[in-house]
Design a protein that fits this description.
With about 450 residues, this protein is an alpha+beta fold. It contains 14 helices and 18 strands. The longest helix has 15 residues. The chain binds flavin-adenine dinucleotide.
């Protein structure tokens, strides 16, 4: 393998190959500060270099793990001592923002927040947003088909992709950098790489859809006394503000209490409510939108759907409300803390969460369960703080979350993907026939199993 490293050093641009102590100097991921493991980190400067890397590694049977911003939640980018890491960190260019066709052309290593800002400077809007925006990359977002806080209005990452360029495990460059909304000329090959977690190719560039910037933004944090009011509030909002509803995020009471403990965030209202919903509308009518939003919130009060609400008076106050939703640092200790991401119909959520609580009480009696999520999309996240160092805490917690999902026909992954972490549970959400086709696709595209081997499926 030293020969391969020497050959890659010779064929790639300066600074592309990182080895030795410089590898271990990096953290494993956003979630794990331990030293990164890899035989070498390869930092291609362009698509051609990605192709050189994959061609040579495929020929030598060398495993390659693709790294974006390393914020993924399911260990999809885990690398071992013998793996090569292919890091997209030097492919960060925002190549084109077309304000007429409303398209963005970007390299896959660009950090989401940098792209959002570049687009905003052109008075456009990229409708993809998630708490990891400061670190996650466009390539990682597409490889995981990321969700986030605007899905309720704009769909998941997949819905934003018009064109894609990817390099196959054998080094073939597959360029489908389409800019049109409509293009039914044969198979839509870009879909092979969206949500397949880097198992079928390395995404190198993409064309994404943009929207015009909204001219009004109205936000509210509301308190609810009963979960049955959550879907009623959602439908009330959908019925009255329609498509302008861009976020509908739920937080269970103990999550809000934990993140507003002294030393963390400032509580914007009474902390004792059982449920909180943070919702937001983006509109285009500066004359009417603010009044209409206020009217809709008042109606929700009058109908008894909400018992309290805070409407931010400035952007700083709005950011402070969103920080309560986005910044979950306060619940991450003491370790171990396990994060989950599931989806199920909103009408089954209350019963499902009660089932999870009951199972955890039985199996991990000292644990804390914190619940939040993109509930408008049927998506719940849990943090389970185990409060024990028992070696089986993880598996007891996993079973308590996933087993009860069956009766509600829920999915073991709403938006984080499968990675290595959820492989064991994949068959609960996908049929044997579906998994067999996934394996066939993997065997066709990557017969030597060099790219992200073992991710999603064996
Ligand atoms: C604070 C926080 C909040 C989050 N909120 C959300 C949320 O609301 N919604 C959501 O969906 N996720 C969320 N996540 C999870 C995570 O941010 C997303 O999964 C994100 O899309 C991963 O992007 P990344 O660049 O960090 O990818 P990485 O973690 O580096 O990689 C993730 C997977 O994609 C593959 N990959 C990365 N780049 C490429 C590429 N160019 N080509 C092919 N494969 C590639 C990797 O091999 C790996 O399998 C959150 C994470 C954090 C830390």
């Amino acid at each position: 393998m030293t020969d391969l490293i020497a050959e890659l050093t010779e064929k790639l641009s300066a600074g592309a190959v990182v080895t030795g102590a410089d590898v271990a100097a990096r953290a494993t991921s956003y979630w794990d500060a331990s030293p990164m493991k890899a035989r070498a980190i390869l930092r291609p400067a362009n698509t051609g270099e990605v192709s050189i890397i994959l061609t040579l590694c495929n020929e030598r049977g060398q495993k390659v793990v693709t790294h974006g911003g390393l914020t993924g939640c399911v260990q999809g980018a885990s690398s071992g001592d013998d793996d090569f890491v292919l890091s997209m960190e030097r492919m960060t260019a925002v190549e084109d923002i077309d304000t007429v066709s409303h398209t963005l052309t970007v390299q896959a290593g660009a950090v989401l927040e940098t792209v959002q800002n570049a687009v905003r400077d052109q008075r456009m809007f990229l409708p993809l947003d998630l708490g990891a925006r400061g670190s996650c990359t466009i390539g990682g977002n597409l490889a995981t088909n990321a969700g986030g806080i605007n899905v309720i209005r704009y769909g998941m990452a997949r819905a934003l992709v018009l064109g894609l360029e990817a390099v196959l495990p054998d080094g073939t460059v597959l360029s489908s950098m389409n800019k049109m909304l409509k293009n039914n000329a044969g198979f839509d090959l870009k879909q092979l790489f969206i949500g397949t977690e880097g198992t079928l190719g390395v995404i190198t560039r993409a064309v994404l859809r943009l929207q015009p910037q909204s001219t009004t933004k109205n936000t509210a944090l509301a308190a609810l006394s009963d979960f049955s009011d959550v879907p009623k509030l959602l439908n009330h909002l959908k019925g009255s503000v329609g498509a302008s509803l861009s976020a509908f995020e739920a937080m269970w009471g103990n999550y809000v209490r934990a993140v507003t403990e002294p030393g963390w965030h400032t509580a914007p209202m009474d902390r004792s409510h059982p449920y909180y919903i943070l919702f937001e509308c983006d509109g285009s009518d500066p004359v009417r939108d603010d009044d209409r939003f206020m009217e809709v919130v008042e109606q929700a009060f009058d109908e008894g759907l909400i018992v309290d609400a805070v409407l931010p008076k400035s952007e700083a106050e709005r950011q402070a409300l969103w920080a309560i939703r986005d910044d979950f640092e306060a619940v991450l200790s003491p370790k171990p803390v396990f994060l989950y991401d599931v989806s199920l119909p909103i009408t089954s959520m209350e019963a499902y969460v009660a089932d999870v609580q009951a199972l955890l009480k039985e199996r991990l009696p000292n644990s804390d369960l914190f619940t939040l999520g993109h509930v408008g999309d049927g998506n719940i996240h849990f943090f389970v703080r185990a409060n024990t160092e028992a070696t089986d805490a993880r598996s007891l917690s996993d079973c308590s979350i996933y087993e009860p999902l069956v009766k509600y026909s829920g999915s073991v992954s709403a938006e984080h993907g499968i990675g290595f972490e959820k492989k064991k549970w994949l068959a609960q959400s996908r049929s044997a026939a579906e998994i067999a086709v996934m394996r066939k696709l993997k065997a066709t595209f990557d017969p030597n199993r060099t790219l992200n081997p073992g991710v999603v499926i064996d």
